[in-house]
Design goal:
alpha/beta, 17% strand, 240 residues, 41% helix, two-stranded parallel ribbon, seven-stranded parallel beta sheet, single chain
Length: 240
């Protein structure tokens, strides 16, 4: 066996056009970078125009649009623009989300509403958009939830509530689209930190790139396989 034949190659993504939400930073940006490197035409959405534009300017995505996933009108306009510009989009990766610190009693109702809208309403709107963008063609919707959506460790009430709602959405979508050409995958990471941070070095958190690698793996699976749920843990969290 030659040395060339022993080289380990990464997964091959089976999509030509993709939409990545939350693409201006964190996991979304890492996903966009990896898909783009494999020749996928990636459109990134994010609330910050400067951030998503910077991703495209850096060669990590092909197109951008400033979209708040909790805004029905903005999402609808983004979907129509993407269909006009690219036609079929077979992969939608929903990474957009927020984390709200503090106990429930400390939080203003406006903050609670914003959090629920961003996680729950945003996930619903993007899931609906994925069905519209993919249509009747084979495709895949991958959304990032959190390990706090599963039993295993306590967390702040608001974050747990929103993520468990997202987990319920995943279960419902899996049943709703069973028998169709649309595959549904949920990725559940626990603690995530910046590469080089002390929490990552100590094994108490994974990197955004680690989560992106799992998403790329899910998007590269054989069409005969549905990677329904992927739970990711840092090596020293001891939560599972």
């Amino acid at each position: 066996m030659s040395s060339a034949s022993r080289v380990r190659r990464g997964p091959t993504v089976r999509h030509l056009n993709a939409l990545v939400t939350g693409g201006g930073s964190g996991t979304g940006r890492e996903v966009a970078k990896r898909l783009t490197a494999q020749g996928v035409h990636v459109t990134v959405w994010g609330r910050s125009e400067d951030r998503v534009r910077a991703v495209v300017d850096g060669g990590e995505a092909a197109a951008w649009r400033a979209v708040d996933v909790a805004d029905p009108d903005g999402v609808g306009a983004g979907v129509e623009a993407l269909r006009t510009e690219r036609g079929d989009v077979s992969l939608v990766v929903h990474c957009a989300g927020i984390w709200t610190a503090g106990s429930l009693g400390e939080l203003d109702v406006s903050v609670i509403r914003q959090h629920i809208d961003a996680i729950v309403l945003g996930s619903v709107l993007i899931a609906r958009s994925a069905r519209t963008l993919i249509g009747s063609e084979p495709g895949q919707f991958i959304h990032v939830a959190a390990a706090s959506a599963k039993p295993g460790f306590p967390d702040t009430a608001l974050n747990t509530l929103a993520k468990r709602a997202q987990d319920g959405l995943h279960e419902g979508l899996t049943r709703e689209f069973r028998g169709s050409e649309l595959r549904i995958t949920a990725v559940y990471p626990d603690s995530v930190g910046e590469a080089g941070s002390s929490s990552v070095a100590a094994g108490n958190a994974m990197t955004y790139g680690d989560v992106a690698d799992a998403i790329v793996y899910a998007s590269s699976c054989s069409p005969t396989v549905v990677p329904s749920e992927i739970v990711l843990t840092a090596r020293n969290t001891g939560r599972w």
